[in-house]
Specification:
The complex is a heterodimer of chains A (255) and B (429).
Chain A (H helix, E strand, L loop, with lengths): L3 E6 L2 E3 L21 E3 L1 H15 L3 E10 L3 H11 L3 E6 L2 H5 L3 H14 L4 E5 L10 H9 L3 E11 L2 E8 L2 E7 L3 E5 L11 H7 L4 E4 L32 H10 L4
Parallel strand pairs in A: 1-4, 1-6, 4-5, 5-11, 6-10, 7-10
Antiparallel strand pairs in A: 2-3, 7-8, 8-9
Chain B lengths: L1 H10 L35 H18 L3 H7 L4 H10 L18 H11 L6 H12 L2 H6 L2 H13 L4 E4 L15 E5 L2 E12 L6 E7 L9 E7 L5 E6 L10 E12 L10 H37 L1 E2 L2 E2 L4 H29 L5 H30 L5 H8 L10 H12 L10
Classes of the chains: A alpha/beta (255), B alpha+beta (429).
């Protein structure tokens, strides 16, 4: 009856409340001295895993984060929320800039196999690059079924029934375990890491690995040519009446 | 503590802080993402401190700040609900013993907490929290019996109880020795008569840490601290006081008429009340000062933002040198205060007496808060005079800092004491 072993992905991203600025040399955005936190969708993934463990559906939760040294802070947060142990796949800050979902997917699938995970749960996307690829590619590399954009996960017999948000409404699918799930916004509301748990998290195991330990080559295959601010919105103008509006639109050749 | 004793003798006017406000300082916070000025630039704080702050920040953003305007209007915030949320996150007993649900951490965690509380958009809520964590419970945690701690401390840490501290009276606040309320022994109980004034959380509290005279005799040796359940017959919460600031924090006047409480409710030794009360002051003052810096920082940042957007005579207000220089000046002062606080905390954590530095922190925090809020309000112009903006709320709320928790003048007396410049009090025969 032993429950699932769950692997969750925890990406460290610029905090959602920070106003992101482009670097003067246009090679990326300013990350130094900027508050970072766990990708909110990954937080939801962690919360779901912890709830499954609380319901005795899961026996162990392992969090993984890929990136520079500071990712350990993100992992500590996950540990404080209830994750059992963590794996930090460390990269040089420079390498991390060019790291892509495919690299992370390869690492996650390798770890999932090594750790004999039954479930991989990751956020549906990260709020920095909005790629929305890691979960899908991980499923593909593992050749496991995937259930993306989950807004409800339930165990039914040995399988999982997952409600997903799709354009037309809600869709419920069944997936066989092992599987890869990605969390959507409404799956749950993540808990606060309480102070007692923050202190306990210090003592939970966190191991550091390198991408090469998993045979993954993260040499960049693409080059960032330029990162630009979105164009500034032009000031609008007020019109007095519908007639005036139509005239203006005609002048502008829009109607 | 020896210093405390000295203080008592000489400067007795210790602030009795308690009531209103000492901590009130926190105030403001505005929007604007803040650069974390506190980071670990000082070696005091670790990653755990930062995580603690992150958790608290989330609670503030989600469960507190969205409701502050409403609470301010209603003149009371739901202490039970807010405290329970904080208690569940383990934030009300950071430095308290683990046997009673605390975390047994050192004082740096309390300071990190106090600083982060400064992101609450008013002074009243942080003050109420400070009363619970740093004013009404330290003596109980240090000197109370196991039974008393189980009955009052544990539920205050978990957030099930709201507490208040009853020191000030109509006849005196800063002059703690002049307390008139009496607790007279009778049939194994104390019979309490008198009244308390300026009691923060008074209208909502489940229990009060009461300072009363338990015997005749010298004013510094006849007082005791007593855990007083607030639902006993004979206790009347007379009124919520209408205040200029700190409006969402309820401040009550309370009367006692033949209130009967068992004698085992006395904290520690009978007659040591004054001394215990003096002991808690250091932490409270430091806590209060620590809770001031973030709001002042936030206020300066938001003022700069406002002045950048506001155009006067064709260019942003901020371009006036008198404004950007002034803000730079104020920011410098705030950092100086922060450094003084950290230095005091460092001393305290390493076991040294920090009475002198803590008094300076409290003094400076009160004065600087007045200076910063007033200067910033000026730059907000007419907007600053409305109740639509935070700067006016902080202007009102922070005025208390120089009064509650030991007035500026009391802090000055203490500092003088350490400088050996305080005239001796007339001999009482």
């Amino acid at each position: 009856m032993s429950g699932f072993r769950i692997l969750v992905g925890c990406k460290r991203v610029i905090d959602y409340a920070v106003k992101v600025r482009v670097k003067p040399d246009k090679t990326g955005v300013v990350t130094e001295g900027v508050k970072h936190s766990m990708n909110p969708f990954d937080e939801i993934a962690v919360e779901e895993a912890v709830r499954m463990k609380e319901k005795k559906l899961a026996s162990e939760i392992i969090a993984v984060s890929c990136g520079p040294q500071q990712c350990q802070e993100t992992l500590r947060t996950a540990l404080a929320m209830g994750v059992d142990r963590a794996i930090h796949v460390i990269t040089e800050p420079k390498e991390y800039e060019s790291m892509q979902p495919i690299h992370v997917s390869k690492i996650l699938s390798k770890i999932a196999t090594e750790e004999k995970a039954d479930l991989v749960i990751v956020g549906k996307q990260a709020i920095d690059d909005d790629c929305n690829q890691t979960g899908q590619m991980t499923a593909s590399l593992l050749d496991w079924p995937q259930a993306t954009f989950a807004s409800k996960i339930e165990k039914s017999n040995g399988d999982l029934s997952v409600m997903r948000e799709i354009d037309g409404g809600l869709e419920t699918i069944k997936v066989k375990v092992p599987a890869v799930l990605t969390s959507d916004l409404r799956l749950n509301e993540p808990r606060y890491a309480t102070l007692p748990n923050i202190m306990k998290a210090k003592k939970k195991p966190l191991v550091t690995k390198k991408p090469s330990d998993y045979g993954v080559d993260i040499t960049p295959r693409q080059e960032i040519v330029s990162v630009e601010d979105p164009p500034v919105r032009q000031a609008g103008q007020k019109v007095e009446s519908v007639e005036e509006l139509v005239t203006k639109l005609k002048e502008a050749g829009l109607v | 503590m020896s210093t405390n004793m000295l203080l008592n003798k000489i400067v007795r006017p210790s602030r009795n802080f308690v009531k209103l406000g000492r901590q009130s300082k926190r105030l403001c916070s505005t929007h604007v993402e803040r650069k974390k000025s506190s980071d670990n630039s000082n070696g005091l704080f670790t990653e755990e401190h930062q995580q603690l702050r992150d958790t608290l920040k989330k609670i503030i953003d989600k469960e507190i700040n969205p409701y502050v305007d409403q609470w301010e209007q209603e003149g009371q915030f739901p202490a039970k609900k807010v405290f329970k949320t904080l208690g569940n996150a383990g934030l009300l007993g950071v430095t308290k013993p683990t046997e009673y649900g605390g975390l047994g951490l050192d004082y740096t965690y309390s300071v990190a907490l106090a600083e982060e509380l400064g992101n609450i958009n008013c002074g009243g809520v942080p003050m109420a929290i400070g009363v619970q964590t740093d004013m009404s419970t330290p003596a109980l945690a240090k000197f109370g019996s196991d039974k008393l701690k189980r009955e009052f401390l544990a539920p205050s840490i978990s957030g099930d109880f709201v507490s208040c501290i009853g020191v000030s009276e109509v006849g005196g606040g800063s002059d703690v020795a002049s307390v008139k309320t009496t607790a007279v022994k009778k049939d194994g109980d104390y019979i309490i008569n008198g009244g308390k004034m300026w009691i923060t959380n008074g209208a909502q509290a489940d229990w009060m840490c009461l300072l009363a005279n338990t015997s005749e005799g010298p004013a510094h040796r006849n007082k005791s601290l007593i855990c007083l359940p607030m639902n006993l017959p004979g206790i009347t919460v007379a009124k919520k006081i209408d205040k200029m600031g700190m409006r969402c924090s309820d401040t009550a006047q309370i009367y006692f008429e033949d209130v009967r409480v068992p004698q085992d409710h006395v904290i520690g030794e009978e007659g040591m009340g004054f001394t215990y009360q003096m002991l808690q002051f250091q932490e409270e003052r430091l806590y209060g000062a620590a809770a001031t810096v973030q709001p002042l920082d936030n206020l300066i940042t938001s003022t700069a933002d406002y002045c950048r957007q506001r155009k006067v005579f064709g260019s942003p207000l901020l371009n006036n040198q008198t404004i950007h220089f002034r803000l730079a000046e104020l920011s410098t002062e705030v950092e100086c205060l922060r450094s003084l606080i950290y230095r005091s905390v460092g001393d305290y954590v390493s076991g040294q007496d920090m009475t002198r530095l803590a008094s300076m922190c409290k003094l400076k925090a009160g004065r600087l808060a007045r200076e910063v809020t007033d200067s910033c309000l000026q730059f907000w112009g007419g907007m600053g005079f409305t109740n639509e903006v935070l700067v006016s709320r902080f202007y009102r709320d922070f005025r208390l800092l120089s009064i509650g928790g030991g007035a500026d003048e009391v802090m000055l007396s203490i500092i003088c004491k350490y400088m050996n410049t305080l005239p001796k009090p007339p001999k009482q025969k």
